[in-house]
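Input structure tokens:
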């Protein structure tokens, strides 16, 4: 079977290594490996999230797997079938998406969609304008525990989820790292959020999300804790879940591979935009100290 050639844009994220290893590394654990894709090139550039020394170390690793590393966007994407935008700093996402979308190739845009709702909406509009094949999400959308919770209770009245709040080296930590936990909420509850009240405390941030149908979501973002889980409930039934992250990147990359090979996106861009809006609104609520309405309607 012919392998699709993948270009990775961005090397300031560990995801560039994690995904490339599952496609290219000869010693990759067979249960983690994803066949049918091969990374052929990667573009590197410094951001607040990674300096030259860190990029050099990652470049050496990629080159050992046969991947050409360049500082030229055009050289990176010249001979590829699909593009993965793997830029840790979301402030760069709109700039590079605008370059990539003109090429007519399928694009995976790693989480979060952007650094602000305005930039996310610009990406959404560009994708629509160019009729682009675009997929964007956190790996938490695809982990087994979340998929099973959704199957167990497809229309919950209440969803409570918890996860990590890593501290961003630039921009909003809620947007940058809260995306993982907010992604679980959106997958489990579905669309329809109307407001967020984000409350900081000594352990992180609690976000209370209201929905147009009266449902309630609670998103617990915790500093110094990197476990994920939650519960889905109706008025008389509950399902608890705890996330095993060991297969998260592989499960996500399988979905990306299917998408790159012509399948439908495993997440609609409308759902991705709602996640972006939830994150943006949570940050605005933190800044204002009060409940804030979402920018868009879902």
């Amino acid at each position: 079977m012919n392998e699709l050639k993948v270009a990775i844009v961005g090397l300031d994220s560990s995801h560039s290594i994690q995904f490339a290893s599952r496609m290219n590394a000869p010693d990759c654990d067979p249960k983690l490996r994803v066949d049918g894709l091969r990374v052929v090139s990667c573009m590197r550039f410094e951001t607040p999230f990674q300096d030259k020394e860190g990029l050099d170390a990652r470049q050496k690793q990629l080159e050992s797997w046969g991947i050409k590393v360049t500082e030229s966007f055009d050289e990176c994407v010249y001979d590829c079938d699909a593009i993965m935008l793997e830029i840790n700093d979301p402030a760069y996402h709109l700039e590079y998406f605008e370059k990539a979308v003109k090429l007519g190739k399928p694009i995976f845009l790693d989480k979060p969609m952007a650094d602000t709702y305005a930039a996310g909406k610009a990406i959404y509009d560009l994708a629509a304008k160019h009729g682009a094949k675009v997929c964007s999400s956190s790996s938490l959308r695809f982990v087994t525990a979340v998929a099973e919770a959704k199957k167990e209770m497809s229309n919950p009245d209440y969803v409570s989820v918890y996860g990590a709040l890593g501290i961003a080296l630039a921009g909003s930590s809620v947007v940058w790292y809260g995306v993982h936990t907010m992604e679980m909420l959106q997958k489990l509850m579905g669309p329809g959020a109307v407001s967020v009240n984000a409350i900081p405390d000594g352990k992180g941030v609690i976000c209370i999300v209201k929905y147009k149908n009266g449902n309630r979501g609670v998103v617990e973002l915790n500093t110094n804790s990197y476990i994920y889980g939650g519960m889905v409930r109706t008025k008389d039934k509950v399902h608890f879940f705890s996330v095993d992250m060991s297969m998260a990147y592989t499960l996500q990359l399988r979905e990306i591979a299917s998408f790159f090979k012509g399948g439908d996106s495993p997440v609609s861009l409308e759902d991705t935009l709602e996640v972006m809006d939830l994150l943006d609104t949570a940050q605005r609520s933190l800044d204002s100290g009060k409940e804030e309405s979402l920018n868009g309607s879902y």
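Residues 157 and 215 are 5 Å apart (CA to CA). The mean pLDDT is 97.
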